[in-house]
Design brief:
Largest sheet: 5 strands, antiparallel
Helix content: 25-40%
Radius of gyration: 20 Å
Oligomer: single chain
Shape: globular
Distance between the termini: 53 Å
Length: about 325
């Protein structure tokens, strides 16, 4: 591992100022992704700026005036998953977090760090291989190589990797907003919207500008009476990214969908909001026939690779069965 300097920030403004003066610096939350990449030689920062111990609201979960929740970026994944307000109002988020990694990792990993973990595959983490995410212009061997668990939506000639976060999929279904602090200015970014599809710049996972720091995630007030579910299909029960996952928030008026939000994981370089499926179901009854039609409306735009066409059928079955269970 390359030698590095360690700095600890006490507030967001100090963290941003420290990084602005160090072009090879990185923010450090729990380190569950960044430190692994440093050990592999993928990341080689000259300075690490610890933002896991920022003061005040960065480490708190607070009610908002509108009835939603503001979750500090330094809140651990474990704290988030077991918070009574999250479990009661946004159970899809609690379920998603508990499906990620292991208990030990969740104890360290932070909300901000989870959102900013690198979209990656085995070629990215192997420095002996070419990878456009690691070395722009070097090529994407996954396209013709091993891509069993790669993207079926939104990929490009330059990258076919999938975003690994379970939390981000649930936040996409909930329509969360990310609060960001830059040098001298703060702004908000919606989810979906924080993460990028690869295009010709797969090295950029998000729309954040250099030096910007996530300070909080805000959730709008929950839909009264809505039913939530997160379901993840993976090759083993722990320490495995999703083959396909789905986060669903369903509001019902009798047997009709008054509100419906569907997000998919394991299918794209970013959490994938299934807007075509939502539009096909909005306002109508939840029947198996209509669910199949809605899933097909979304998946007809998929572009599977040689080894991962199974994800199309898997995603269809996951959408249909999850919504049928919720509706019943």
């Amino acid at each position: 591992m390359r030698p590095f300097r360690f700095e600890r920030a006490t507030d967001a403004e100090q963290a941003v100022a420290l990084l602005a003066d160090e072009p090879e610096a990185r923010y450090l939350g729990g380190g569950t992704n960044l430190v692994d990449l440093m050990r592999l030689g993928v990341e080689t920062p000259a300075v690490l700026i610890d933002v896991a111990r920022l003061d005040g609201a960065h480490r708190a979960i607070e009610d908002t005036a509108s009835g939603g929740l503001r979750i500090g970026a330094a809140v651990s994944n474990s704290e988030l998953a077991v918070d009574p307000r999250v479990r009661a109002r946004y159970p899809v988020l609690s379920e998603a977090v508990l499906h990620g990694a292991s208990g030990q990792l969740r104890n360290l990993a932070t909300v901000g760090g989870n959102l900013l973990q690198r979209t990656r595959c085995a070629y990215f983490t192997d420095v002996t291989k070419s990878c456009n995410k690691r070395q722009p212009g070097s090529g994407c061997p996954a396209r013709e190589g091993h891509h069993h668990n790669h993207a079926i939506f939104g990929h490009s000639e330059d990258c076919v990797a999938t975003h690994p976060s379970d939390m981000a999929v649930a936040l996409a279904a909930l329509g969360a907003t990310v609060h960001v602090q830059g040098r001298g200015a703060a702004r908000t970014i919606p989810i979906p919207g924080l993460h990028r599809l690869p295009g010709s710049e797969p090295q950029r996972d998000t729309v954040l500008e250099p030096g910007e720091l996530i300070t909080a995630v805000e959730l709008v007030p929950p839909i009264a009476g809505a039913r939530h579910r997160y379901r993840k299909v993976r090759e083993r029960r722990s320490f495995a990214f999703a083959l396909v996952s789905v986060a669903v928030v369903l509001g019902l008026d009798g047997d009709r969908a008054s509100e419906i939000r569907i997000a998919l994981g394991g299918v794209a370089h970013a959490p994938w909001r299934a807007t075509r499926a939502e539009e096909a179901l909005q306002g109508g009854p939840i029947t198996e026939e209509r669910l199949i039609q809605a899933a097909d409306a979304e998946l007809e735009h998929a572009q599977p690779l040689r080894e991962n066409a199974y994800k199309v059928e898997l995603a269809r079955n996951l959408i249909v069965t999850t919504l049928l269970e919720l509706a019943s």
